[in-house]
Amino acid sequence: MYKKVSHITMVVENLERTLKAYEGLMKLAPEGDEPVKKTPDARMAMISLGEISVEFIEPDMDKDSPFSRFLREKGEGVFCYCVFVDDYDSHINHLKEQGAALEEVEQKDFFPDHPFRIAWVLPENGVGTRIELVDYDALPDWEK
Questions:
Q1: Which residues are within 8 A (CB) of 37 and not within 5 positions of it... i.e. 6 or more apart?
Q2: Helix (H), strand (E) at residue 13
Q3: Strand partners, 59
Q4: Cα dist. 63→59, 69, 131 in Å?
Q5: Taking the CB of residue 132, how many other CB atoms lie within 10 A of it?
Q6: Three-state secondary structure along 80-137?
Q7: pTM: predicted TM-score of the whole model, two decimal places
Q8: What is the pLDDT of residues 86-96, one digit of tens each?
């Protein structure tokens, strides 16, 4: 079952410039004590818009990742929207049975004590933009 839409992911060229613009124009500041997080292939920050957040990702352009490829090919913009799902395996198996184009990864960087699985339903399926499906049951309680 789909639990909730968690966030929208935007790929940006310059994270500091983007965060400064959102704070100045919209009075929205990033979340957390350390708002900018680093992963092996990107830097990111989240801004809360109530029940949904916007995740900004600045990819390391020296590394090949879905985010760096997106920025090279399309420029800045909406990369995906994220939906938390329970019974993750059932969702993924159904998509595969339908012949859906997927990209699957295990995310170990955001919550090191709680690695979780992600599958992106790719735009070539006719869905307009990537849809990120996250294994809800693997997330830490405070993230749910």
A1: 43, 44, 45, 110
A2: none
A3: 42
A4: 8, 9, 23
A5: 22
A6: EEEEEECCHHHHHHHHHHCCCCEEEEEECCCCCCCCEEEEEECHHHCCCCEEEEEEHH
A7: 0.87
A8: 999 999 999 99
- Element housing 72 (H / E): helix 66-74
Instruction: Return d(Cα 130, Cα 123) in angstroms, integer.
Output: 5
Token output for 112: 């090191």
Nearest CA to 12 among 59, 62, 72? 59
Residues 87, 110: Cα–Cα separation, whole Å: 21
Spatial distance between the Cα atoms of 136 and 87, rounded to a whole number of angstroms: 8
Q: Which letter, b or e, does each residue of 26-63 get, where b requires 16 or more Cβ atoms within 10 Å of its Cβ?
A: eeeebeeeeeebebebbbbbbbeeeeebbbbbbbeeee
Hey, what amino acid is at 112?
Answer: P
Q: Exposed, middle or buried: residue 98 (CB in 10 Å: 0-12, 13-18, 19+)?
A: exposed
Confidence bin at 69 (pLDDT 50/70/90):
very high
66, 104 Cβ separation under 8 angstroms: no
